[in-house]
Amino acid sequence: MKKLIPILSLLLVAILCFSCDQRTEAEKIVDASIEAHGGKAFESSKIDFDFRNIHYTIFKTPTAYEYIREFTDSTGTVKDVLNNAGFVRTVNGVKIDTLPEERVGAFSRSINSVAYFAFLPYGLNDAAAVKTYLGETEIRGEKYHLIKVTFVPEGGGEHYEDEFLYWFGVADYFLDYMAYSYHTDGGGVRMREVSEVIEVGGIRFQNYLNLKPEDKNTPVEKMQDLYISDNLELLSEIVLENIQVESLSK
């Protein structure tokens, strides 16, 4: 009987641990993908990179963020800072206080979009993200978990109605494909395929081929079939250059 007590205790602990994990299947898959792409390194690092001749500095944790972009145009040296406190633009070191609200919104969305895609899959655990597991699927001989992400109005930004699909490898949990619908600038739908992987500072960064269908009103759920049948057009390439990762952990 004494020998049974330790065994029963271990079984009880295992049952309690299992019952404590209240995550959905989608949440478990996203968590595994975040771990595969860099895990805690995402929120303990400052990341710098160049994208389309603009320099970005990105920092993000579950409770705080700061996104900076810097470039030079006809007005001089422009620096945009978006963080928990809001948006600030300076030109040649002087703060611009006369920006119309619509411009502040446009600049903020632009910076946030670059940061969001560069940090994937980390941002999929934002509080406003609603993740739904759509089951397993297959693309060109590889098996994937397919997850749909939508956003609640509170905290989901101005364009919370946008919809996203993500394909995570069953074997490795890497994010190999994504598709999304959007409503800005007349709306549309896109699919992205990983074209290159760069690992820096323990984080997996990915470049993408940006693809579009002939009909911009195509439902995002149709993008996989269009991709497999080669009925998507290459629109652009998403390439991060000069990536640097500075660890902030002590």
Automatic annotation (TrEMBL):
InterPro entries membership: DUF6503
Pfam families, A to Z: DUF6503 (PF20113)
Keywords on record: Signal
Signal peptide from the UniProt entry: 1-19
The protein, known as: Deoxyribose-phosphate aldolase
Organism of derivation: Algoriphagus boritolerans DSM 17298 = JCM 18970
